[in-house]
Write a structure and sequence with these properties.
single chain; six-stranded mixed sheet
Length: about 375
Amino acid sequence: MRPPRPRTTTAARSLARAAVVALLAVLAFLGTGAGPVAAADGDAPWAISTASNDFGSDRPNYSYTVNAGGHVTDALEVVNHGTTPLHLAVYAADAFTNEAGRLDLVAKDAKSPRVGAWVRMDRPDVTVGPGRSVKVPFTLTVPHDAAPGDYMGGIVTSPTDGTDAGRRLGIRIRLRVGGALEPKLSVQDLHVRYSGTTNPVGKGDATVTYTIRNTGNAILMARQTVSLSGPFGLLGARAGHVDDSPALLPGDTWKVTVPVHGVTPALRSTGTVTLVPLLTDASGSVAPLAGAKTTTHAWTVSWTLLLCLVVLCALVAAGPVSWSRRRRRAKGSTETASAEVEGDHGPSREVKGAIEHVGALDHDAETGARGTR
């Protein structure tokens, strides 16, 4: 008769199988969750494009230059690639730069005070039969008090019957209102954090963080360089390649974190960020503008080296005291040795006094004897 297997072994195997099943379930969930996010626009049963008209054909997006108080009329084309009719909502929205650095359009229920409010669609929704296409006209009217500069928005389509929930297809509208163009970027909240090194004579790493703000009225990207230097510009360290910032709308911000390696602990260092604005015109060409520098100061101290210096100073300060103590001890030892030597070679003070006293008694006794006679 075979002895039964220990229950702990069976439990361990069951637990291991459960862990494997749970891991596979998690991986399957992550795989299915990533699908819709990575899906291309071509997976949607419909497509949108700019209509062919006096503005041209096969345009990637809408681009206009209009003076304040002016207007333009254009159209959106919607094509149904599916086998059933599609009912789509059509609306205009303002654009913004999302956390991934891409220009996106706000949701339908979000407030759009600029392009989204200046565009009026010919209809709020559209029904497109299978294999058919429909044009949806719209008019963009710029208010008389609109400030000069760049604006970004777009036209969005989304299902209204609950199918493809959350899916939106849109086309951007880039608008430049006539007037003086003032492209400008600024660096805000510039900080340097030095992480140091355990090597007292080595170099450490630093992290430079800052925020880019588009303070002008033009859509801009920023070319960035970051560096650190010690007093008088010496002992410099330069960060590696820093990617250009995404396109920033007027008023938009973008947070940046840049590592800098090989930083010498120069006690007080200067961090410098240089931004070169990149302006893109209507044709798509990029023109670099004059750069601007922003600096800040930070402590870059090697705490290991500082500790070594403190210990060295303590040892130096303790040297004279220790030497003085040793000198006093040596002097005391010398005096004690001298006293002992003197006691060995002659009578002590007490013994000498006793001898002198005995001598005096003998003299008195002798004198008294003579007087008696």
